[in-house]
Amino acid sequence: DCLDLPDKLPDEVVKVDLKEKALYKRLLESSALLEYEILAENPLSRMIKLRQLVSGHIKTEDGLIEVKNEKLSILQELIEGYEDDKKLVIFAEFKYSISKIAELLKKLKIKHIILDGDQKDKTIWRQFQSDHKIRVIVCQYQTASAGIDLFSSDTIIYYEPTLRSNILEQSRDRIHRTGQVNKCSYIHLITKGTIE
Description:
Elements: E1 12-16, H1 21-30, E2 32-33, E3 38-39, H2 43-54, E4 57-60, E5 63-66, H3 71-80, E6 88-92, H4 95-107, E7 112-115, H5 125-130, E8 136-140, H6 141-144, E9 155-158, H7 165-172, E10 185-191
Parallel strand pairs: 1-10, 6-8, 6-9, 7-8, 9-10
Antiparallel strand pairs: 2-3, 4-5
């Protein structure tokens, strides 16, 4: 209560078009995609598969199938719209999404780091804080939503939503910490007419 922090700006929602409407509708209504040998009768399993589909992939027993998705191109537009010296935090849920975001950042020649469950060095976020050449940190919710300070950025882009409101609130506070001098922005990529 005694901290004098800048404001959190109202959340901005960027609406994303669903590219695989027919697949999504079939999975939603029948809990199955027979061509991929996917059966998701359990409500939790169906919810996970729908969320994956909206994020550009479906995990099967035999591996991973990529599907059309608009999120990556929208993310690219957002990143290219920021000044070269501005740092960004990107949160994502799925490892597939994190790998696709990392590929995009490499293609754009943007120095970045990843903090997810596979990252051995859990203090890698300190490099993001101190190294002005590292412009982006890509975070998995479960790994980076608590206990770290990312106030060298004033903007978080949520590539896909998390299901847990407490984790979302904790992730929001990663940039809204002592040391932050700018108002904090939160941008959510949400696919229209879907479980998101």
